[in-house]
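Input chain follows. Return structure tokens only.
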Amino acid sequence: MNKKYDYLVVGAGLFGAVFAHEAALRGKHVKVIEKRDHVAGNIYTKEIAGIQVHQYGAHIFHTSDQSIWDYVNQFATFNRYTNSPIANYHGQMYNLPFNMNTFSKLWGVRTPAEAKAKIEAQKAAVQASGQPKNLEEQAIALIGTDIYQKLIKGYTEKQWGQKATDLPAFIIRRLPVRYTYDNNYFNDTYQGIPVGGYTQIVEKMLAHPEIDVETGVDFFAQKADYLKMAPKVIFTGMIDQYFDYQLGELAYRSLRFESETLPVDNYQGNAVVNYTDAETPYTRIIEHKHFEFGKGNQDKTVITREYPADWQRGDEPYYPVNNTRNNTLYKQYAALAKQEGHVIFGGRLGQYRYYDMHQVIHAALVTVAAELN
């Protein structure tokens, strides 16, 4: 800890890596520490049987911001992958997002007018009007009862560990509903998967003589010493943990991943299949080779079952639970953070908000502009 640094970056995920990279380009000396034994955070990919395996869940890069797309393309070549998940409800397969393929399979309708009439009739039957007070009411107001019961209710309750009637309406307010035969989940202009996986992106960001990286390091084991290492600290961990939970715990959802290599060339025919019934304990199965169109060992495939889990201290926090109680508590922690003049909090955990990858990069570049330009 004797070397002089301009910045200490806690966390080698996307936010920390972007900041470290940009700081190094400006001649700053940067130390990056990471508690896991690898860089890249939750976008980490590992090659197994010639297949890039998304170790912490499916990550599909998508954005309509050309500047962000150009930025990330400095570090990898992206393929033309289009996110088109499938829903499995008790063995019946449906296209996602909800579109004319879904409606036709479900009701036998052929035209957008027929589909709209079916949905409106279901909404009228349950008097879905006014201001939805919870997720269930919001979903039915958007898409009717059939799709809600088969494709939303069970999946969402597994994902969040709560009844849909206890979840806030805003979670599902932007639910994609399309009256076209289009299975592209995202509306963004740019979309794809980096050929060769995501880890290379962060490795290239950090491959700079001004950056020192150390993995397998627990910031909290020597917090006081690390805070003295540099005049400025970029902290991308949990903001409530940083303050020793002194105002109480923020709520998170965790995940458990169960992966296996199978002696078949193609297990499910799609990268992502969501299991939307309540009885199946996992929310989805990912078959990783389909992210790169079947490349890898053609005699084997790698699948991952994703199980949502309650979060407790010591678990990995994957999703902030942005309800009224937690958002209020976060604002109190953010007020404390402002008093830590030499510490900048960033990323999904540091800013307690759900970020997609392009949003993480944008947030990091905003921090760079404020701090370094």
